[in-house]
Amino acid sequence: MSMELEPFVFRHEGTVIGMRTNPEAGPASDEEVLLAAVNRFALRPLRRDEFAVFSLDLCHNQIDKHFSRFPDEELEKIDRMTPGRPLMERHDLRGSLPRGTFFRSQLHRDEARLAVRPDVYVLRTAENTDFILNIEGGVYRETSIGFSFRLPECSICGKDIRTCDHVPGRSYGQQLCYFTMRDVLDVIEGSVVPSGSQGTGFVTQERALALPAALEAARKAYHMPIEVHGGVEDAPEARALLEAMEAHRLAPGQVAQAVDDGLEARRRAVERFCGLGRELDGLAFDETVWRRTLEPLTLREIHRHLSAYEIRFDQKYPPQPVSRPEPLPDSGPKGVSERAMAILRA
Fold this sequence. Notes:
It is a single chain. The protein is an alpha+beta fold. It is built from nine helices and eleven strands. The protein folds into three domains: 8-193, no CATH class; 211-249, no CATH class; 256-316, no CATH class. The strands form two sheets. The chain has a seven-stranded mixed beta barrel with strand order 1-2-7-6-5-11-8. The protein has a two-stranded antiparallel sheet with strand order 9-10. It starts with 7 loop residues before the first strand and ends with a helix.
């Protein structure tokens, strides 16, 4: 007789990626659409100045640090289920009430990465003042989704990973083992958490300088002519560079050194990860697959994988103290300690 396994209740971590806070930005029609979307969930019509709106990536189709991933079709289901669900803190469904409500959602594709990107509104009440300020200030950066699903499908054999012998995170031949989360049953909530698995921080849409002004400042610094054509949408690479310079307070002359330092830190982290993997897993560690897996990740994401191996290494080879007290050697009835006491008594 076969027994059907119970559905998973799982929390898959994501990260806050953006915000919308300026009530006067954009045409009036956009404001009307926004108010209509929010007021579908309000018991009375809300004014625009009564709430803040944030955008966030809730989950995506890439392999995460837990060696799990969503297929695209499940993300489509999550996208439909998310509006109306609450925004919580730390998945606390027993001790606290919601901070906000997800009121719309969309799928966002960036090359191979497909993400569920919902909008959430948070009322500007006295209780929420610090909460909103911490998100806007980049202190509360990351989020996590609480949901249930039925089948964790093994990437190696296609069976329920709870019933097969494969271990997520290990390589079998040229294949990395992970589990695909299929048959999502419900989106329970989304939460703000201290540390998630996505690795992307909060990004404001407001800029200290408009792009043309920022490029003009860079041109003066380098004494090089730069022509600007079109708006921000026409220069995404320049916009990303300026954002990074602003976030890290880099002068134009410091950018090249910062890039070199980052690449060197990334190379060292990958080499250390592979060295620990060979030591801990032996032939089961597929270095080629792991290097391909780490290649698209950020340095912060690589360090998260590296940290897991360092913990395993310390468990296998516990660190020894640098020095330890040793007793003085005694030879015969009158050893060193007795001779020392004799000298003191003399």
